[in-house]
Design a protein that fits this description.
This protein is mostly helical and 101 residues long. The longest helix is centred in the middle third of the chain and has 28 residues. The mean pLDDT is 82.
């Protein structure tokens, strides 16, 4: 039996009303995010931020002493890398629950 989306939602609403199901009953069917996952995600973010800060500090110390060609290459490489990573993050973040515009 194949139902369209509105028909399936109507049938689901009818079943919820008949059996007096609460929102918590229905939401218990869906997996909840684990707190350990959130902690790991925050830890990864902070570690990456610390690493980026350290590298930026070290490059900043010797930037004026570098060859101008290397300065341009370093700046352009950083810009391309940041742009590519921003596009990747946006694509990853916009999958769920709603697509980004």
């Amino acid at each position: 039996m194949s139902l369209s989306k509105p028909e399936a939602l109507a049938q689901l609403s009818k079943i919820i009303d008949e059996h007096k199901l609460s929102k918590d009953d229905v939401m218990s069917l869906f997996p909840q995010e684990d707190r350990k996952y959130k902690f790991a995600l925050v830890s990864y973010f902070l570690g990456g931020l610390l690493l980026l800060t350290g590298v930026t500090f070290l490059v900043g110390l010797v930037f004026d002493d570098l060859n101008p060609v290397f300065q341009i290459a370093l700046t352009l490489g950083l810009a391309v890398t940041l742009f590519a990573s921003a596009c990747w993050v946006q694509k990853k973040m916009c999958r769920w629950p709603q697509p980004c515009l």
